[in-house]
Amino acid sequence: MIKQALVVDDHPIVRDGIKELLQRAFPSVTIKDSSGEDGLLEEVCGYPWAFVVLDINLPGQNGLDIIKKTKVQRPEIPIIVFSLYSERQYAARALRAGAVAYLSKERPPLDLIEIVKTTLEGGAVKKPREVMVSQPLLSDREVQVLALFVRGLSRKEISKELNINEKTVSTYRARLLHKLGVRNLVELIRYAVEEGLVD
């Protein structure tokens, strides 16, 4: 059976670049791609992929939930997260969800190739040092909302980005203020940056 792998990213240029990089590095593996739209879970679980490279920041759905659900249905499929979010911010959550590796898009392309090579050979991928850093007990969605606030998005923009109600964004904002012990959005953003919770 010919080995096939799947690259999931909602940005066509990034998706095509990753696909071309991996196809050149692993000519014996057929690299397919997906924009990560509705039906992604069925797409990921519907074939015994040699590995899946997944961006967890997908419009309208939570990539971490996709990982968790995939590991229930197809635990044998290795999922490598390749995301814009920093490793310090998201690596621990992705690994707990069931990913075999987490890689920031700021890393050199060779790092992704090395991780895929190790995965195909059945080896264990070394966890980034940042995973060991203690973090406040925030949910995956709270971290997503926090990152978008830091990027300067308004509540309305965040609600559109995450496909949730604007009132729900306000609820997450209140939770973040309470959990992190800050009084307002300015202090929240400063705390997040200083503590390395986001880039």
What count of helical segments does DSSP give? 9
CATH architecture of the largest domain: 3-Layer(aba) Sandwich
Class by alpha and beta content: alpha/beta
> Element order, helices and strands?
EHEHEEEHEHEHHHHH
* Percentage of β-strand residues: 5-15%
Quickly name the level 1 CATH class of the largest domain: Alpha Beta
Query: So what's the overall shape?
Result: elongated
**Which spans of ≥5 residues are poorly predicted at pLDDT below 50?**
129-134
At the fourth level of CATH, the homologous superfamily of the largest domain is: Response regulator
Count of beta strands: 7
Roughly how many Å apart are the termini? 42 Å
CATH topology of the largest domain: Rossmann fold
What is the strand arrangement across the widest sheet? 2-1-3-6-7
Largest sheet, in brief, is: 5 strands, parallel
If you compute it from the alpha carbons, what radius of gyration comes out, rounded to the nearest whole angstrom? Answer: 17 Å
Quick check: average pLDDT? 87
Helix content: 40-55%
Write down the domain tally. 2
